[in-house]
Amino acid sequence: MNERKLDLIYRRLYSHYGPRGWWPIRTRAGTPGFDTKGYHKNDFSIPQSSQDLFEIIVGAILTQNTTWTNVEKTLESMKSQSLLEPSYLHDTKTEDLASVIRSSGYYNQKAKKLKIITSFLLQGDYLNNSHSPERQDLLAVWGIGPETADSILLYGFNKPYFIIDTYTKRILRRLHYITGNESYNELQDLFIIEKNDNEAMYTVRYFNEYHALIVEHAKNFCKKKPVCDGCPISEFCGKR
What CATH superfamily classification does 45-156 receive? Predict the structure, then answer.
């Protein structure tokens, strides 16, 4: 991967879409600094509380194999049942939690995952936001794969881990930068580039915005059936 072209693609996407304001905090939607969906463009101080942090982590699990629209519905249901309070969720029966999160799909598995990750967070005292779990410890938690772990670390704990999801793979493949057979770590390494010996080229803020831009682009142009007319990065297709 040519890091200059990688950065140019980012700049084209940013110019086209503008700041995304990820990770959305649904329970703060419509409050000062947040739009009606909970996005907070150009404010990278999120999470600001243990409540924000826990909601991000819950959302990272709920969004597995479903759309964010379904996650929004689920978060609203959880809020109405006080299930965005870690201690309350921890003490709730798995089957009761599953009935509340049905709209997220795979609700029985996700209820179990939420119970397990909540126990992990409480036992490690990670929700006070003063320290974060190690990536390998997150990956050792049942139900947490690389994509979910990196979502939690990047958006919840502000750690520089680039998220490799289906959208990222699709766009990189159509740009002919990958074959599609690369491992998660190999793809992630494409984004870990040093500007020089001492200065990291990519920061948490850059990773935050870049991943969100990739998701936005995949929804608008780089769909399963691509829409190439008007695509801001179409010139890079087929070029290295």
Answer: Hypothetical protein; domain 2 (1.10.340.30)
